């Protein structure tokens, strides 16, 4: 029996120091208390980039420009009840200051320390890929 496929789009916001913004799942959601890249479910006929822009606006109160979204990687992950497909974009420029609009906790983390967080399962390989492919700003401290 095949599982329903859920399409999600996420973004790794990267600040001037090379840190990645992570969000903590709220208590009323699956995987509560675990960390993830901000993003969310794609709506019908929505392009992945549009999902990221909408979700970053709703969740963090920022306005990324479409041309600032750089496709980075994707994950295809099987959960118990569904299969998740998620492209991950990188974004280094946006308007506004990220703030937890929906009451979630946020944290800036250097790439080499992402694996120290308790990540939602689908984000684990993406965090490893970021660690392996992006420079870690801590070496400039």
Explain what this protein looks like in three dimensions.
The protein has 141 residues and is α+β, with helices and mostly antiparallel strands. It contains 2 helices and 9 strands. The protein has helices spanning 48-60, 124-133; strands at residues 4-13, 20-24, 35-36, 39-41, 63-64, 69-78, 82-91, 94-95, 106-109. The chain has a 4-stranded mixed β-sheet with strand order 4-1-7-6, with helices on both faces. Strand 6 (69-78) and strand 7 (82-91) form a beta hairpin. It is globular and about 45 Å long. The relative contact order is 0.26. The mean pLDDT is 92.
Q: N- to C-terminal separation?
A: 52 Å
Helix count from the secondary structure assignment:
2
Question: Rounded to an integer, what's the Rg over CA atoms?
Answer: 14 Å
Low-confidence stretches: none
Order of the strands making up the biggest sheet: 4-1-7-6
| Percentage of residues in helical conformation | 10-25%
Element string (H = helix, E = strand): EEEEHEEEEEH
Pairing-aware structural class of the strands and helices? alpha+beta
What's the pLDDT, averaged over the residues? 92
Shape estimate: globular
Share of β-strand residues: 25-35%
Tell me the total number of β-strands: 9
Largest sheet properties = 4 strands, mixed
In terms of quaternary structure, the protein is: single chain
